[in-house]
Amino acid sequence: MSADLVAESTNGNLDEQIAQLIQCKPLSESEVRGLCGKAKEILMEESNVQPVKSPVTICGDIHGQFHDLAELFRIGGKCPDTNYLFMGDYVDRGYYSVETVTLLVSLKVRYPQRITILRGNHESRQITQVYGFYDECLRKYGNANVWKTFTDLFDYFPLTALVESEIFCLHGGLSPSVETLDNIRNFDRVQEVPHEGPMCDLLWSDPDDRCGWGISPRGAGYTFGQDISEQFHHTNSLKLIARAHQLVMEGYNWAHEQKVVTIFSAPNYCYRCGNMASILEVDDCREHTFIQVFLIPPQDEANLTLLEERLIISCRAGELVYTAGQFLRCLHAFLQICSLFQVH
């Protein structure tokens, strides 16, 4: 069989899988394994600071809210007609993490130049074991193989992206250990998200009204002030830092005199917060427009009972934002104590 026929057959299979996923029907375990193998080959060639051309539509957290993701594609345009950049946190908390991340990865394999998928702090083995993705995989597949396949793939996701050398995109925020984009380019990203250090900071940090660096209430990363943003802009010739990671009620929120913007793309977060979502469209002239998305009614009310059981730790957004980082910090401290006493 010629190379062209092989490619045509592969694309045909992918198109069938994408059509199935768009109906919110998960792939088989073997299909997920094959898909992630192809995705790994693509992602391992991408940079820690992945260059992206405009026009592009930039999206924030999705958190397993598949039907809201489908609505974003309806509003923003289907891939590959629209070029997309997602800034992480595809899994956990929502009920359809499996379908959400599988669809995004399948689109990456089918249209590698038309969609960029960055790593968020929830694309992590430790976090997903607590916040829903692991349990969802067990429930839908009867074992943890799909969870392991995806979490192994997460290690290859780029950490950041750079749109037309001007808009720096990442999930969390800045790091006191990172002054230049070249610093990031030199990371070895193929690993579990560390509990501290520059790679951790990029996925966990938040902008703050106070100047300088601060201790993050999340238990991981830092807070950073406008002076830090301005210096990073100046050093790297940037016009904007776009990030996700925080629930904002209007779907987007400016900080640091419009040098930093937070984009959140999961409306009615956790099916109860009542927030809007947004996406950021950057056109050919590098002008940007926010599109706000209102909440989408849950498609399956019966599933909300299971979701509520997972979220029993808190139903208020102000509490939810901190728990993952505190868990991560406590887990590492516990493992260190165990190693001292040789507890296994």
TrEMBL record:
Keywords: Hydrolase, Manganese, Metal-binding, Protein phosphatase
UniProt superkingdom: Eukaryota
PROSITE patterns for this protein: SER_THR_PHOSPHATASE
Catalytic reaction annotation: O-phospho-L-threonyl-[protein] + H2O = L-threonyl-[protein] + phosphate; O-phospho-L-seryl-[protein] + H2O = L-seryl-[protein] + phosphate
Residue ranges constituting the Serine/threonine specific protein phosphatases domain according to the UniProt record: 118-123
Assigned EC number: 3.1.3.16
Entry-linked InterPro entries: Calcineurin-like_PHP (IPR004843), Metallo-depent_PP-like (IPR029052), PPA2-like (IPR047129), Ser/Thr-sp_prot-phosphatase (IPR006186)
CDD domains listed in its UniProt record: MPP_PP2A_PP4_PP6
One GO MF term attached to the UniProt entry: protein serine/threonine phosphatase activity
Required cofactor names: Mn(2+)
Enzyme class: hydrolase
SMART domains, sorted: PP2Ac
Similarity field: Belongs to the PPP phosphatase family. PP-2A subfamily.
Protein name: Serine/threonine-protein phosphatase
